[in-house]
Amino acid sequence: MEPVIQRFPDIFETAFSSGQFLKCTLSKPVPTAPEGLKNIYLRPVALKAGPRIAFTYRYKTRDEVKNFTLAEAKQQLEQLLGALFLNADLFTTEQDVTLSFAKNGKATLSAKKPTQTEPADTRHDREKHRLLDPAAPWLHDLGITNAKGEVLSTAQDKWKQINKFLEIVDSLLRDHPLPPNAQIADMGSGKGYLTFALYDFLSRRPGLSPSVTGIELRQNLVDFCNKIAQKAGFAGLQFIANDINDFQPERLDLLIALHACDTATDLALAKGIHARAGIVIVAPCCHKQVRRDMETHNELAPILRHGILEERQAEIVTDGIRALLLEANGYKTNVFEFISTEHTAKNVMITAVDGGRETVDGGRRAVDGGRREEALKKVAALKAGFGIREHYLEKLL
Ligand SMILES: C[S@@+](CC[C@H](N)C(=O)[O-])C[C@H]1O[C@@H](n2cnc3c(N)ncnc32)[C@H](O)[C@@H]1O
After folding, report:
1. Using CA positions, which residue lies closest to atom 25 of ligand 1?
2. How confident is the model at residue 190 (pLDDT cuts 50, 70, 90)?
3. What is the mean pLDDT of residues 42-47?
4. Contact in structure between 326 and 352 (CB atoms under 8 Å)
């Protein structure tokens, strides 16, 4: 008779081939397993390339997903069972099967009635709710995934950032939907990761047909991104080589500017406010301007003689004033940690949505006077306390 340990991958193979496979978890890692790896979760997925098994490697602080063909998945199981994991629970529509290893290495296989008899849903809900398909060819062209649609180990942080960003957009849009043919700009789009992700995500929304423009100083990046957009058939996505300052949008519904250097974030915010963008999302980076200008006179002065504390304080003041200036211009703002510092140091995000409190004033929109006054007073007090002669966004506005 076939040894117990070999029977498990065979049962898995039969279940998968007959559509009975639901899920499987490999648990109880041995001490020599990769550090932080807690378990591996398997589920069937329907990819464009055909049926696959997604292996989610669950580490203490992150997940990694790899998709395997049946033959590859079976081989993985043969290599992992007993060697790296001492327990495996397989769920099929016919039976629940458990393989466990005792301390002496002896394997036991047991089966019981199935917990679930409904076949696995490999497509519907997951695809409906999926923010991004890792098999999208543009992800490969941008160097995030390999040809099999697997996220490269070197691109895991970027992948997390992209997905987190889309989650934030998704949740903002629930309360503030975009109009059809939404006009969207990504200012300081760089290599276009987020611009592509945003376009891919939004263009799949029925009736939206967005037009997304990446604005980027560097011509080589613009050419690179336009080539990939064309290859992907993304007709509503374009990149232009321009300074944010010279970009004159006729209409803006959504503005994003992530990690646009120093005052480029202020340029982007000013463009968004002037164009009265419905939603603004920025993740500022390198706050040099305010730091250069800061001469603290308030009670924090004695502690800000330490360079690192002064740097952090300058960041807080810069972004705090940005949020207040948005509020002074009728936006409701939110400042929060975008993604854990483990993935990027540039992790503060400011989101702003048009507060809808404008009144018509001489044909131009004006915000609620009282609120504006209040916010501007706070800006003035902060500037006085920290000896800031000028905040670039205030100057632009
Ligand atoms: C750090 S990258 C970030 C790219 C992208 N937004 C991201 O988060 O992956 C910042 C980009 O902004 C561009 N940039 C900086 N100032 C700019 C300006 N005034 N106008 C247009 N692009 C600018 C830079 O060339 C650079 O590619």
Report:
1. 217
2. very high
3. 89
4. yes
**So where are the chain's domains?**
4-126, 137-396
Confidence category of residue 364, pLDDT binned at 50, 70, 90: very low
> What is the per-residue pLDDT for 366?
54
CA of 119 to the centre of ligand 1 (A): 47
Could you tell me the CA-to-CA distances from 377 to 285, 356, 374 in Å, in that order? 26, 22, 5
Atom of ligand 1 nearest to the CA of 257: 6
At residue 293, the 3 state secondary structure works out as: helix
**Region 137-396: CATH code:** 3.40.50.150
Helix or strand run (H / E) with residue 309: helix 307-328
State which of 193, 213, 216 you would mutate to test the pocket of ligand 1, scoring each by most atoms of that ligand within 8 A of its C-beta.
Answer: 216
Contact 257, 282 (CB under 8 A): yes
- 194 CA to centre of ligand 1 in angstroms: 12
Q: What is the model's pLDDT at position 215?
A: 97
